[in-house]
């Protein structure tokens, strides 16, 4: 079996997060008929892996198996140097069951204050995985963007930790940036370039 996706194919985006679904749809350049795991009422698998790659593969395989369609999943998060890489794969969990990222960003700030560190270096990582329903081959790639944290957060665009993250070489946070500017350079975009090279 060749690892290819034909334009126009129906593809499950393994997420219940509308912001993430929109971002992935834009990056897929409307090549596919997209449906989200949320739309299909698929259960969210428990993310039991300790790496972004492991969780992306787990989510893609679960969605492909449950839907009978090819599935794309991403696992991404913020890692903070002074917090030994936390929240990392637990980035979404820091926001609690209500997905309250204002709470998650406060938690990052409080932990940095408790660590008494002036180091504000941080990075976003994105692992993208594609799985097919026949348990065949799977594809996974990873992208990363480095930057620094700023408090209080600025901007209302994007989602998650975007308001506190200033990418290297820029003055605006991801939360302030025009979505197209963010999409051109984000961790998700970098992973996606690798995915496109492999798939299309």
Radius of gyration, taken over Cα atoms and rounded to an integer in Å: 17 Å
Which word captures the global form?
A: globular
Poorly predicted residue ranges? none
Question: Beta-sheet strand percentage?
Answer: 15-25%
Question: Can you lay out the helices and strands and say which pair or pack?
Answer:
Elements: E1 10-13, H1 18-27, E2 33-36, H2 52-67, E3 70-80, H3 101-115, E4 121-131, E5 138-149, E6 165-167, H4 179-185, H5 187-199
Parallel strand pairs: 1-2, 1-3
Antiparallel strand pairs: 3-4, 4-5, 5-6
Structural description of this entry:
This protein has about 200 residues and is of the alpha/beta class. The chain has one domain: Maf protein, CATH 3.90.950.10. About 30% of the residues lie in helices and about 20% in strands. It contains five helices and six strands; from the N terminus they run βαβαβαβββαα. It has helices at about 20-25, 50-65, 100-115, 180-185, 185-200, and strands at about 10-15, 35, 70-80, 120-130, 140-150, 165. A six-stranded mixed β-sheet has the order 2-1-3-4-5-6. The two termini are about 15 Å apart. The model has no long low-confidence stretch (mean pLDDT about 90).
Task: Write a brief caption for the model.
The protein is an alpha/beta fold. The protein has five helices and six strands; from the N terminus they run E-H-E-H-E-H-E-E-E-H-H.
Question: Key terms for this structure?
Answer:
30% helix; 6-stranded mixed β-sheet; alpha/beta; Maf protein; 200 residues
């Amino acid at each position: 079996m060749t690892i290819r996706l034909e334009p126009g194919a129906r593809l499950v985006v393994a997420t219940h997060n509308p912001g993430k679904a929109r971002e992935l749809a834009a990056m897929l350049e409307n090549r596919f008929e997209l449906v989200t795991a949320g739309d299909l009422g698929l259960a969210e698998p428990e993310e039991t892996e300790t790496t972004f790659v492991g969780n992306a593969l787990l989510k893609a395989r679960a969605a492909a198996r449950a839907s009978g369609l090819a599935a794309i999943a991403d696992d991404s998060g913020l890692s903070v140097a002074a917090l030994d890489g936390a929240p990392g794969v637990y980035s979404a969990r820091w926001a609690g069951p209500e997905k309250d990222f204002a709470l998650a960003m406060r938690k990052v700030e409080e932990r940095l204050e408790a660590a008494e560190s002036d180091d504000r270096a941080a990075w976003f990582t994105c692992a993208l995985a594609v799985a097919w329903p026949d348990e065949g081959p799977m594809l996974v790639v990873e992208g990363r963007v480095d930057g620094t944290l700023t408090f209080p957060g600025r901007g209302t665009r994007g989602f998650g930790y975007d308001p506190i993250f200033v990418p290297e070489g820029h003055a605006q946070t991801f939360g302030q940036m025009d979505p197209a500017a963010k999409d051109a350079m984000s961790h998700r975009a970098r992973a996606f370039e690798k995915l496109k090279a492999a798939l299309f």
